[in-house]
Every structure is written in C-alpha cells, then in structure tokens.
Design brief:
- This protein is α/β, with parallel strands linked by helices.
- It is built from 16 helices and 32 strands.
- The strands form seven sheets. The protein has a five-stranded mixed barrel with strand order 13-14-15-17-16. It has a five-stranded antiparallel β-sheet with strand order 20-19-18-21-22.
- Helix 4 runs parallel beside helix 5 and helix 8 runs parallel beside helix 9.
- The longest helix has 18 residues.
- The termini are far apart.
Length: 650
C-alpha cells in the first residue's frame, strides 16, 4: 500500500468557493431569464461544464446581449464591463475574489491620483487583464526579473506597484529589488494572496519529502502551474493531472511515498477520488453531480456555534463573511461590537479571518445571522471574572456618561463605574472622562444578572500616596516648581504638583490686594510657584506666587524717600485715617490729623475709596512695612519765588 500525504491547503480557495456558491445560488433562484458567466467562472473544466449544463453559459463579450444576469468571474474584470452592464440595465452578480477586488481599488485610486501602474504578473492571465482595466489599460506589466531589468521606466513618475494574487513571492521580491535599483519612486502594495503563499510553501515542503508528487488542477490555472513548477524543483517525479483519468497508475509502485496537492480551483471530490485511488483503499466513490460534490464539501452550522470565517466585504458597516457554508454570513453593525464607537470598516477588511457566533442559520433573507459582539462578551466576561477573583486591574474605554456614573467597555463587556468610585474626590462634570481609557478594579460582579461594578477610587488613592511619597522625598522649602491649578476656593488655589496638591493662600497670590483668587488664576492654568513650607507629617505643602526677590518693600526706602510727594489711591478707611496704595503691595497710612488743614471728624468726610490723591512721605519703615503719609502737607501751597524783572524795551 502506498503512503499518501495530502497537502492541508489543497482544494478550493476562499475566493473560488465563494464565486461557485454565488453561481449555484443564482442558478437555483433563476426564473428562466438568461444567465451568463463573463469568461470561465474559475479555471476548472469540471466546474464550468457542470454550471453550463445547469444554465450558466460562458460569454466573452456583451455584443448582442441586452438582458439577463451576468456573473463576474472570480478573476475579476475591468471597469468597462461594470459600465456596460449598467448602461444596458442588466443585472450583475459580482463573484470577484475579494483579494482581487482589493487590487482593483488600489489601482483605480492610484490612477485617479495621476500615478503610473506596474503589475507584476502574467499579462495574458484574466486576473491581470482585469486589473489593467481599472487604470485605463495603461499599466506596465512585468512577468519576470528579466522583463523588470529590460523595462524602460520614467524616474520622474510615481509608480503604484501591485502583484497578481497567485504570483511567486520570491520572483516578485527579485523584481522589486531590480526596480529599486533603477531609482524609481515606488508605492508598493503586497497583494499576493496569503492562501496562495501558504499553498505554495506546503507544496514545497511536501515535495521535498516524497518519492512522487501529484498536482491536481486545470491546465490553464495559473496557481496550479506554479505549484507544478515548485514541486518539480524538489521532486523530479511530479505529474500534473486534471482528473483521475489523466493518472497513469503503472508509474506508481506499492510502497511509494506520494504527495498530493491541488490548485485553488480544484473541486474537493476530484481530490478525494485521487487520494482514495492512490491509497489503494477499497472505497467505492459514488457518482455525484458537481453540485452534490460541492454540497458535501460545505460545513454544517447550528445556532450557537462559534466558527471562523473570512471577511468578504464591508458595505454600509455590515460585514459579509464566508463560512464555507452554502450561504454567506452577515454581521449587522449592532452585532459587531459592544463598544458603540467601533467602526467595522476600520477594524476588518476583505480577506481577514475572524471568529463569529451563529445567531440564526437563516435570517429570513437566506443569510446566516452572525455576531462578533457575543464572542467579545463571552471572552470578556471570562477575563473580567478572573480579574474580579484575583483582584487585578482591568482597563476599559469610557463610552457613555449616565445618571450616577460612567459606562466603560472592557473586552466587549459593559462595566458601570459609580460617580463615587470614579475618583477619590467629587467630580462635578463626568463628561471629561468620555473617550478616555481608565484603569480600575472590578469591585462587584453578578454574572447571572450581568451586573458588573468597577471602582477606581482605591487605585487613585494608592497612586496619589505613591506620588506624594516620591514628591515629599525631593521637595524643599524655597524651591521653585511647576504645577497646574486644579481647584479654586474663596481662600486660595490648589495646585497639582504631579499627583499631589499644594495650597496657595489668597494672601500669597499677589503683592497687591485681591478679593478673590479668580482675579489671578483659573482652573487648568499652568503656573510656577515657590514652596513656602513642607509639612511631611500632615502631608501639606504651602505655596506662593510671590517672588521674594521682587518684594516691593525692599525698594520702598529708596523709591519713597522722606519728603517726596507721590500719588496714590485710597483703598481703605479706618476711624483713625485712610490707607493709600502707592503700588501693588505697598500701602501707606494718612493719619486723620494729616488729611486736611482743619479738624476732620471722620476720614469719609474728606476722602472716598478709589480716589487718587497726592501725599507727602513722612516716614518709611520697610522692616515693619509701614509708611506714614500726609495729604495736608502735600496740599499746602508752595511759596512762589519773586518774578524776574522783564528787560526794558529798546
């Protein structure tokens, strides 16, 4: 008995299977209208013959065709066909592989931006021809490193470079190196299908470890031909067959180690027949129609299943997913994520593999209703329960501000954070947290009732304690430090020094007189403050905005010399006189006896607050911060000097 090894990735790729499923679905619901495939749907005669027998006829042109439905082949077509179908008013079913469709979009966008296009691939292959049709058939098509070397390209142009999905990665890498050596301005998109690359790598490894290699696939299939090329480099006894009928069994001996792989368009039933035959097992292969063979290869789904699928497209933020089932799956926007801010088109793209929850096998429109949100919830709930039990910290993004607190999303699960647990102090406006990622503990959890409460008060207090300890290790009285005004009160301002607040008393905000801290500061303002005192035991820090070197009293003796007359503003009345501000921070007293050259009963009889008057400096004591002033002497008339005698007229 021969030892047969089948490559894991052998058989239909995602794009091919999707196109076939769409074609059979269209045949099933067709009501007698003409049904066409523009070019062979895939590169496999078994498939296309079966489809033709059921009514899907291949056409190469729309000439003479004005009604019916056209199924676009998996290799894709140029923009011209979409325009022609729209003009004729004909129905279209787009079976283009999502990976190929992505290349169409890249090329069309680059062309519209004025870039030239380079396609690495076989210019005669329908996929490459279709791609070229999205840049006005203007692309430079290069199939080999030799062609890349010989190509005459303009170094002043900007080139968008794409590659055929089934192209050899190593060959593409060599071509890119050559183009770079030419000093070209290249915008390179890696568009080789990951499934193709995986299939080629498996074929390479398998062919190194067998005596004989069988590659199954259509002779016209590009990806099959590349598999043959790869296998023959490692195994001389490599044969390329389309069906079991092409296999010469006498060339194989009992005990041979045989490897089998297949192209992306090879039906599973054909692969199965070859494997059974080469394994020399006494298995009867029943004759089935291709549709039955395809049905046999499809997966079975049930409500509640968690399965993996491949994203086909995202349209209107609704995600279509291929599940290997007879119908595609659909994830509505509302079932994509518990986080309402998540935009599906920004998270997934065509070709991505994702895990989904089957909500209903038939949503009423023939599609499978899926949910990604429920997967998030299941996994997220497990993570949260673990964090609750182990008392570890979780992180979540605040999505909503509700009555009494915040709603945060942790791994797809809603967690309520009461306002009393948001911080260690009252926060009036919780909206400042919306959109922020916060860390907190799970302090209460009831999985049955789906009641999950988060709290960050203890974390904040721990963080503040740590910051306070670090700050008190370094801060000293007399130092200057930067901070941010965190809160204003009637008696002063609290300044955040990096997690720890210090207080600026209102008396330390200005050398002048102020009645409210809001005259000088506002919340959120960055300030530089002077440290007056540090009380480590009580955890208090006293701050000042006043620079001691700028104390106006240190200059008062010289600036307000005894005998000089200066102007000042009356700022306060007392029974024994009036205080006059000479400059911010420097007040002097006009005693009641020095207000006027007459008896004054009350200062208010002669002066009023806010009035600017002239005063004479009588005495200055800068140490006690006292200046004695006199309005009476400043107002005394100055004795006039005798006028000079005018010169006599001549």
């Amino acid at each position: 008995m021969s030892r047969v090894t089948l490559a894991e990735s052998a058989g239909f790729c995602f794009g091919v299977k999707r196109a076939i499923e769409m074609a059979y679905a269209e045949i099933e619901k067709n009501n007698g209208e003409p049904l066409y495939s523009y070019g062979p749907l895939i590169h496999n005669k078994e498939v296309t013959n079966d489809l033709d027998a059921k009514g899907l006829h291949i056409i190469e042109s729309l000439d003479g065709i004005d009604k019916g439905t056209v199924v676009i082949r998996s290799h894709g077509v140029g923009k011209f066909l979409y325009d022609a179908l729209e003009e004729k008013g004909m129905k279209m079913v787009d079976g283009t592989c999502p990976f190929v469709k992505k290349i169409h979009n890249i090329v069309n966008e680059a062309w519209n931006e004025g870039k030239a296009v380079i396609i690495a691939g076989d210019g005669k292959h329908p996929e490459v021809m279709g791609i070229n049709g999205w840049c006005g058939n203007s692309a430079v098509i290069l199939e080999s490193p030799e062609e890349a070397q010989a190509a005459e390209l303009d170094p002043d142009k900007k080139y968008a470079v794409v590659v055929q999905t089934t192209f050899r990665q190593s060959k593409f890498d060599d071509m890119i190196e050559i183009l770079k050596e030419k000093g070209l301005n290249l915008d390179i998109s890696q568009t080789i299908c990951s499934a193709t690359e995986k299939r080629q790598k498996e074929a390479m490894e398998l062919s190194k470890n067998v005596d004989k290699m069988i590659v199954i696939g259509d002779k016209k299939s590009s990806n099959t031909q590349k598999l043959v090329e790869i296998c023959r480099k490692n195994c001389e006894n490599t044969v390329h067959i389309e069906t079991i009928c092409d296999l010469v069994l006498k060339n194989f001996e009992c005990g041979d180690k045989i490897g089998i792989t297949a192209g992306a368009s090879t039906p599973p039933a054909i692969i199965k027949e070859v494997v059974v035959t080469m394994s020399e097992e006494n298995v009867k292969v029943e004759e089935m129609s291709f549709e039955q063979m395809l049905e046999e290869s499809l997966v079975t789904l049930h409500t509640g299943d968690v399965v993996k699928g491949t994203v086909i497209q995202v349209v209107g933020e609704e995600v279509s997913v291929n599940l290997g089932f007879k119908s595609d799956g659909v994830i509505p926007r509302g079932e994509f994520s518990r986080d309402t801010t998540v935009v599906p088109s920004q998270v997934v793209k065509a070709g991505d593999e994702i895990e989904v929850f089957v909500v209903r096998v038939n949503d009423g429109d023939g599609n499978v209703l899926l949910s990604r949100k429920r997967i998030e919830e299941q996994k997220g709930m497990e993570d949260i329960e673990k964090a609750f039990n182990e008392k570890t910290v979780v992180a979540g993004t605040v999505t909503d501000v509700v009555k009494g607190g915040l709603i945060a999303i942790v791994n797809g699960v809603r967690v309520f954070i009461p306002s009393s647990q948001v911080s260690n102090r009252f926060i009036e406006d919780l909206s400042v947290f919306k959109g922020q990622e916060l860390e907190f503990n799970i302090i209460e959890m009831d999985r049955v009732k789906r009641r999950i409460i988060g709290g960050r008060k203890a974390l904040v207090e721990q963080e503040i304690a740590a910051k306070k300890a670090a700050l008190f290790e370094t801060i000293e009285a007399g130092s200057k430090i930067a901070g941010t005004v965190s809160r204003l009160t009637d008696f002063g301002a609290f300044v955040d020094l990096g997690g720890v607040d210090g207080l600026i008393h209102i008396s330390e905000m200005s050398w002048g007189r102020i009645s409210n801290p809001r005259e000088v500061l506002k919340e959120g303002q960055a300030v530089e403050v002077f440290v007056l005192d540090v009380d480590k035991e009580k955890g208090k820090i006293s701050l000042s905005l006043k620079d001691a070197s700028m104390n106006p009293w240190t200059l008062a003796v010289d600036k307000y010399a005894v005998g000089t007359v200066v102007e000042g503003k009356v700022v306060r009345m007392v029974p024994f006189g009036a205080f006059v501000e000479l400059e911010p921070g420097v007040d002097g007293l006009v005693h009641i006896s020095q207000i006027a050259n007459k008896h004054v009963v009350k200062p208010e009889d002669e002066l009023k607050v806010g009035e600017v008057i002239k005063v004479k400096v009588l005495e200055v004591n800068s140490e006690q911060k006292k200046i004695s002033l006199s309005k009476r002497q400043a107002d005394a008339p100055v004795e006039e000097a005798p006028a000079e005698e005018a010169p006599a007229a001549e």
